[in-house]
Specification:
alpha+beta, three-stranded antiparallel sheet
Length: 226
């Protein structure tokens, strides 16, 4: 698949709006990704043209929801498509109900509650809050976070800089999380109230009309749209 390279944040945002779903890296057949549509030498430069820095701006500026929504892969879903995608691909029951029914891990429940209590909590604080700071806890913690993103309960809000006692940057930036419904509210996005079955049909129709057949078939199979 040949693509025209994107060099600005604004143009990348337009691609997200046009495609509806744009993965960070390529995994959907015959479908663009942020990595594929940008020049390799622009990544990790720290400049305004660095696509790595755009990831969090898309979420922070309300252009797209950011998270690992399916296939455990990071991706962007446009603000316009997000309500429909959430209804079609997200969990129908609440976190608490799924936990009571044995469909959600204890770690996921605790992490969800912590994020609900503190909008935009960063990973370091989140791990401390739920008592999962040890190295041995990392796999379970990461798995629980992905579980909450794939059910459309949680999205990535952006990043926070780690500062030392003097207020200077120290160490790597930390990813921040927020409840999906809260993110939508902050961005003025009205969530859909359609049933999951109706939403799946509508989402399938939209993607089939717009996407390459191979891309649609992959997502339809992974997300059980048909």
């Amino acid at each position: 698949m040949s693509v025209e390279l994107i060099r600005t944040f604004t143009d990348a945002g337009k691609v997200i709006q046009e495609q509806g779903i744009l993965p960070l890296t390529s995994f959907i057949p015959n479908h663009p990704s942020l990595k594929a549509i940008t020049a390799p030498n622009n990544w990790h430069t720290g400049l305004e043209s660095d696509p790595w820095l755009w990831r969090d701006r898309f979420a922070g500026e309300g252009i797209a929801a950011y998270g690992r929504f399916f296939a455990k892969k990071p991706m962007f879903i446009s603000a316009a498509l997000f309500p429909l995608a959430k209804n079609a691909l997200g969990a129908e029951d609440s976190v608490e109900r799924r936990y009571r029914d044995g469909l959600l891990s204890t770690a996921s429940l605790h992490i969800f509650k912590a994020i609900r209590e503190q909008d935009g909590i960063d990973v370091k604080s989140l791990r401390k809050h739920v008592g999962m700071q040890q190295k041995d806890d990392k796999n379970e913690f990461d798995k629980a976070l992905i579980e909450l993103q794939s059910s459309f309960d949680v999205v990535i809000l952006g990043i926070s800089e780690r500062l030392n006692a003097l207020g200077n940057k120290s160490g790597w930036n930390s990813t921040c999380y927020i409840l999906a419904e809260k993110w939508a509210e902050l961005q003025g996005i009205e969530l859909s109230e359609s049933t999951q079955e109706a939403a799946k049909i509508e989402l399938a129709v939209q993607l089939k009309q717009q996407w390459d057949p191979a891309a649609f078939q992959y997502v339809a199979k992974v997300c059980k749209l048909s």
